[in-house]
Amino acid sequence: MPDIVVRGLSPARPQGKVQLGLLSISCALGRGGRRCKRGEGDGITPVGRWPMRHVFYRADRIIRPRTSLSVSPLHPGLGWCDAPGDANYNRIVELPYAASHECLWRRDHLYDVIIVLGHNDVPRSQGRGSAIFMHLARPDYQPTEGCIAVSLSHMMRILAQARPGDAVSVL
Asked: Which residues lie below 8 Å from residue 9, measured CB to CB, with a gap of 6+?
């Protein structure tokens, strides 16, 4: 599959379209729109080409996604370190974890399926942004903290077509 292409409606707006072949899918973007990432917590969806690294899903809520990508079930003890300066910055961590982190086991449904995108991971640069995912959107497509969010049905369609080495290009 060619890259999944994400285009914003305008650089500063938190809505966009995901192009998957001939299909155009609505998506939510970061509250700061899409542009070059300035740093941790800026709310920007970073422009660039981000490999799809891994898929996590809530096995207590949905069936295992059908995909050729690497997949693991989430459990309540998983988090993602977002503390610049920490040795595990922008990496998955086991909870409890002393440094600042995001809990991946959420009460809402946003992280029922997550595609970890390869933003700022090889090499990692402290403070340049962490936890850039493609995840599920809120029903009204409210802005994200910098991720790309789509509906569950569209996420499953993306995953069914995704292959190792595929990427998401944010233009």
From this structure: 15, 16, 17
Say how many C-beta atoms besides its own lie within 10 A of residue 122's C-beta: 7
Q: Are 124 and 144 in contact (CB under 8 A)?
A: no
Mind listing the pLDDT tens digit for each residue in 13-61?
899 999 988 889 999 999 999 999 989 999 999 999 999 999 999 999 9
Domain count, the chain: 1
Considering only CA atoms, which of 57, 53, 58, 8 is closest in space to residue 34?
A: 8
Count of CB atoms situated within 10 Å of the CB of 35? 16
Query: Whole domain around residue 26: which residue ranges?
Result: 4-170
Answer whether 144's CB lies under 8 Å from 28's CB.
yes
Q: Are 136 and 151 in contact (CB under 8 A)?
A: yes
Query: What is the pTM (predicted TM-score) of this model?
Result: 0.96
Mind giving me the DSSP string for 80-97?
EE--TTSTTTTSEEESS-
